[in-house]
Amino acid sequence: AKTEERNTLRFYTPMMHASTSRRLLLATELRQALVREEFRLVYQPSIEMRTGRIVAVEALVRWQHPDRGEVLPSEFIPVAESLGLIRRIDEWVMQTACAQIEAWDLAGMPPVRVAVNVSARGFGHTAFVDGVSRAMQQRRVPPGRLMLEITESAMLRMGDDTERTMRALHALGLEVAVDDFGTGYSSMAYLKLPAVAYLKIDRSFVSGLPESTDDVAIVEAMLAMSRSLGLKTIAEGIETEAQHEFLMRAGCNEGQGYLYSYPLTASAIEKLMSPRSLR
Ligand code: C2E
Ligand code: CA
Ligand code: CA
Ligand code: CA
Questions:
Q1: Quick one: how far is CA 44 from the chain centroid?
Q2: Tens digits of per-residue pLDDT, 197-219?
Q3: Relative orientation angle of helices 266-273 and 86-106, to the nearest 10 degrees
Q4: Predicted TM-score of the model (pTM)
Q5: Which terminal residue of the chain has fewer beta carbons within 10 Å of its beta carbon, N or C?
Q6: Residues with CB under 6 A from ligand 1
Q7: Residue pair 150/90 in contact by the 8 Å Cβ criterion
Q8: Residues 34, 91 contacting (CB under 8 angstroms)
Q9: Is the ipTM beyond the 0.90 threshold?
Q10: Ranges for the EAL domain (predicted)?
Q11: Sign of CA dihedral 144, 191, 182, 230
């Protein structure tokens, strides 16, 4: 953790002011990371509030740097975005997640939804839908097993083309979650888009529950609105029993957070999901 701290704070954060040579070094390292397969996915379970069953996992990318150790996405994704490498990372994540779904199916694991985060740049690109479709076909991913998490700000950035892309995703049988809902320039209009089936309540609203009357009001309003629109809700960043209690009583469908599980390796997920571990 010490090395990670040193590196993340000293090396990655000041990138804005970093010299061109440093940027080039990181660019080279990120490109090499793709070739050298230094990325890996971890998976965080999403539980059904009512039953406590694991119904989904969210794929989260990690960079296993040879010297720096594990680098978190909050550190390298903004850099990859500014370097124009994010689409290649997105593609790798999509292909790896689809391969994992196939492997889990072959191993006879209970079929859980696998959620993949999509960057704004990736979502906005004309080749996006084709890429997703190809990855699904290659691995014979049944519709309903793959879900895309797209932030409001990504939808906003894309403007008029958002609806056309959503229609295309819907036609592929894909469902979309609006990620980080309420943190950007919120527009309720996104919730009406085809393919949008889930609303993810951002951790920034969950962390204040149940003490903050503001957060209680906001979360209750989000849940009521989702219900009337026929959307399912997933709360992220649940860390305490009190947060779990509140969200369950308020009728939130699914929850994710350290209270239930940290993001885990694929094999740890398999162990968690195997009939044996249910006792
Ligand atoms: P996000 O989509 O909102 O993902 C949730 C983040 O919260 C994850 O951090 C997760 O590890 C963390 N988290 C989960 N439960 C808890 C909790 O109970 N407490 C706290 N404090 N944190 C919790 P992570 O993995 O570092 O990802 C950060 C962000 O990076 C993600 O936010 C997402 O926007 C982006 N990201 C992650 N993986 C990918 C990816 O494969 N592709 C793209 N384009 N973006 C990704
Ligand atoms: Ca997400
Ligand atoms: Ca979030
Ligand atoms: Ca997010």
A1: 9
A2: 999 999 999 999 999 999 999 99
A3: 30
A4: 0.91
A5: C
A6: 44, 59-61, 72-74, 77, 90, 93, 117-119, 149, 179-180, 203, 236-239, 256-258, 263
A7: no
A8: no
A9: yes
A10: 23-277
A11: negative
